[in-house]
């Protein structure tokens, strides 16, 4: 099994009971204690990481860093991921005190909100989407709903939904007949519909495009959905910079995604290449923020 569909078959690490215990300790004893616990937790997951996963992470980091990945690089990526998980616990429960969030491109959201115009937000498994959701508290109060597959939801998703019931309500499950109608209604209200465009569940159509120096499979589904919704498209990344520090980046991507019937394949590949190019640039600038712990390019790449 290769490519971005491989993640769907990966077992989730960490039991539901352990996750709930960590969340209770962090919320009960405070963020500093939760942050201190990240060190042994990160060491445990790094030390017990399956060999195939470690190889995959090393290969990604080598491409993003432009050099061979050292043990310290793996540590930083795992620690960054653990940090965003801890912060989700606090952000989802409304405990934002002590967090510093800088925003680039906020004027794009403000201008669209002033026009009452909905936007499609293309993101990736990078940094924290909960930090992106927190943009409402940064001066752009807009409705944000995510179009996503929920079939692979695990213990972590169950925990986060229990911390903030509104989180589950903010997700529009793909695969249901009413999904596109719900997304269109959000756009008509001037809201934002988000899509993660760097991986897809098994069975989605994949197209190979250049990414970090080699051909990698990207799903055609998110870009096709953006074309169907036919709204302005922006890219959005919630990047972890350090303890309780985030940088939210919004940038224009397209006035609308167009996939003409007669040139559909070429047009779709062109949009995917543009997305992959920009994602690669962000990965090189913030290499420890991209969380895909499997063979993204396929074995032997």
TrEMBL record:
Main location group: membrane
Keywords on record: Acyltransferase, Cell inner membrane, Cell membrane, Membrane, Transferase, Transmembrane, Transmembrane helix
Any Gene Ontology CC annotation: plasma membrane
One Gene Ontology MF term: acyltransferase activity
Ranges that cross the membrane: 29-52, 223-242
This protein's record includes keyword Acyltransferase: yes
Keyword Isomerase included in the entry's annotation: no
Protein's cellular compartments: Cell inner membrane
Lineage top rank: taxon: Bacteria
GO biological process, one term: glycolipid biosynthetic process
CDD domains: LPLAT_LABLAT-like
Protein's UniProt name: Lipid A biosynthesis acyltransferase
């Amino acid at each position: 099994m290769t490519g971005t569909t491989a993640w769907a078959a990966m077992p989730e690490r960490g039991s539901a009971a352990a996750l709930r215990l960590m969340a209770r300790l962090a919320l009960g004893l405070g963020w500093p204690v939760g942050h201190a616990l990240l060190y042994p937790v990160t060491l445990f997951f790094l030390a017990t990481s399956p060999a195939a996963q470690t190889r995959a992470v090393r290969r990604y980091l080598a491409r993003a860093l432009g050099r061979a990945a050292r043990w310290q690089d793996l540590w930083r990526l795992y620690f960054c991921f653990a940090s965003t998980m801890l912060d989700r616990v606090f952000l989802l429960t409304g405990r934002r005190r002590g967090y510093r969030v800088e925003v680039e491109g906020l004027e794009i959201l403000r201008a669209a909100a002033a026009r009452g115009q909905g936007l499609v937000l293309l993101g990736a498994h990078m940094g924290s989407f909960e930090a992106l959701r927190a943009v409402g508290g940064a001066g752009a109060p807009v409705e944000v709903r995510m179009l996503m597959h929920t079939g692979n939801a695990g213990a972590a998703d169950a925990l986060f939904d229990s911390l903030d019931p509104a989180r589950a309500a903010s997700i529009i499950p793909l695969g249901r007949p009413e999904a596109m109608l719900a997304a269109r209604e959000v756009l008509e209200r001037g809201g934002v519909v988000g899509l993660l465009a760097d991986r897809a569940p098994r069975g989605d159509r994949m197209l190979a495009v250049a990414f970090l120096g080699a051909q990698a499979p990207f799903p055609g589904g998110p870009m096709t959905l953006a074309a169907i919704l036919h709204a302005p498209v922006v890219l959005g990344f919630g990047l972890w910079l350090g303890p309780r520090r985030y940088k939210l980046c919004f940038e224009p991507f397209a006035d609308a995604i167009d996939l003409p019937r007669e040139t559909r394949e070429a047009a779709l590949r062109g949009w995917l290449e543009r997305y992959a190019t920009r994602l690669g640039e962000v990965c090189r600038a913030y290499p420890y923020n991209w969380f895909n712990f499997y063979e993204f390019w396929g074995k032997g790449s």
